[in-house]
Amino acid sequence: MENLINIFIRGAFIDNMILAYFLGMCSYLAVSKTVKTSTGLGLAVIFVLVITVPVNYLIENYILTEGALTWISPKFADVDLGFLSFILFIAVIASIVQLTEMIIEKISPTLYNSLGIFLPLIAVNCAILGGALFMQERAYTNIGEAVSFALGSGLGWFLAVVGLAAIREKIRYSNIPAPLRGLGITFIIVGLMGIAFMSFMGIKL
Amino acid sequence: MSLFSSKNMKLLSNPLNDSNPITVQVLGICSALAVTAKVKPAFVMAISVMAVMTLSNVIISLLRKTIPNRIRIIVQLVVIAALVILVDEILRAFVYDVSKQLSVFVGLIITNCIIMGRLEAFAMANKPWDSFLDGVGNSFGYAWILIVVAFFRELLGSGTLWGYPVMEKIGLYNIGYENNGLMILSPAALIVVGIIIWIQRSYNKDLIESK
User: Fold this and answer.
1) What interface predicted TM-score (ipTM) does this complex get?
2) What is the pTM of this model?
3) Cα–Cα distance between B13 and B133 in angstroms, integer?
4) Residue A128 is part of which domain span?
């Protein structure tokens, strides 16, 4: 249990997807204009991460790694399908995003309308594929750890996007040099947020 | 129509400045920031993106009439992912140490929005040759920002360029110069890109955003 909480905190703060690894930057910069839309996208990212990371974890450990196929027949003990991981992970993500979209549309049309274009865009959000690839690189030992990693990094993404949106809403009233207005100042703010988040790096878990 | 008509030259030159993929279209930021701590990985990354982008632009443009609209995203992703696997295997075979440094970011070329964005916005509606030029132009636009950011980060952060100890040869350390450790850390990349945008827009007034 303690281990799971460690992975969760590590994913959310120390290895924050945006501020430590810059994953999912494109949509992060594009939707952080208002707090409302960014909350919607943040929740959608958490949701998709929590589903796709465990699914990809199962694929990784029961199909892709060397010797993973022994549950079918011991003959496959030295088959290594690792090179297929990119294509399988992205296929899983694209289809789960599509599925999520259809389910949300059926169950809650209001939520579906408020998320709008952002749901399909999550398929190409690097944070999701990055989550799958980090899960593979860090080699979590069981599915519980993978879920807690997904939950943590999703929460980290959510916090970062809502925080940036709040700052951008306020900064609209400031007098910024014209060439820096909009995109330029946003980059610098994210840089400063990143420096602030580096203070978590000293924490040993 | 000649191969390099003025319209085609525009396809090549626009992405370098007026519609730069990073500073104007805001595409492909993730990788641009993460791999620019040193010039060498940034250069390798730029070449990889160039290869994937140009080839996928041409392939999708050739297939554009046969791809059903509803599943086009999956088709595009499959084409990109196949090309990225090729690039990844080639990097591992020939420049293993750089490939280790780039870690997950080679895989993340798949979701690099710059490639999806150009496929969606250009290759799906244009002829192969135009798409080829668009791919080349955009990858150069991406590459020069990457190299400039990496140049400043490596020079100020580690005092080297492509591994060559510039600052030490000039002899700055003897007069009390210190490397700025902040430049190696990832947030510095964002600030450098922010400053590049600032400089670019103060020369190119059309790009300034309204309030």
Assistant:
1) 0.77
2) 0.79
3) 10
4) 2-202
